[in-house]
Amino acid sequence: MDCLIFKTRTEGFHSLGVYQSLKKVVKHEGVIGFYKGNGASVFRIVPYAALHFMTYEQYRCWILDNYSALGTGPVIDLLAGSAAGGTAVLCTYPLDLARTKLAYQVSSLH
């Protein structure tokens, strides 16, 4: 849950602090309430990491092949890493959205 309902000020959590919000979740959903959306998060991280790793190498090789005047170094790594991160996020965003929606669901907390 990572306190998403506290951060977004979900109804029933408006005037509660972190401790009171945590107590309320435990009371109404049990300890399992803290893990809502965690399965989707774990399911998302594997393809995200694989895509990031694979595309980083592809982008780095493409930059080195097409822009050899830039040489090698941290700037090339930054460019390749940024492009790889963007690609991985674009491809796994639906899974991240599902994780957020699962974590945001609140069963009757009133």
TrEMBL record:
GO CC terms of this entry: membrane
Pfam families per UniProt: Mito_carr (PF00153)
Coiled-coil boundaries: none
Main location: membrane
Keywords: Membrane, Repeat, Transmembrane, Transport
Superkingdom of origin: Eukaryota
Topology versus the membrane: Multi-pass membrane protein
Solcar repeats: 1-62
Signal peptide: none
Gene3D superfamilies the UniProt entry points to: Mitochondrial carrier domain
Subcellular localization, as worded in the UniProt entry: Membrane
Family (UniProt): Belongs to the mitochondrial carrier (TC 2.A.29) family.
Protein name per UniProt: Mitochondrial carrier protein
Species assigned in the record: Ilex paraguariensis (yerba mate)
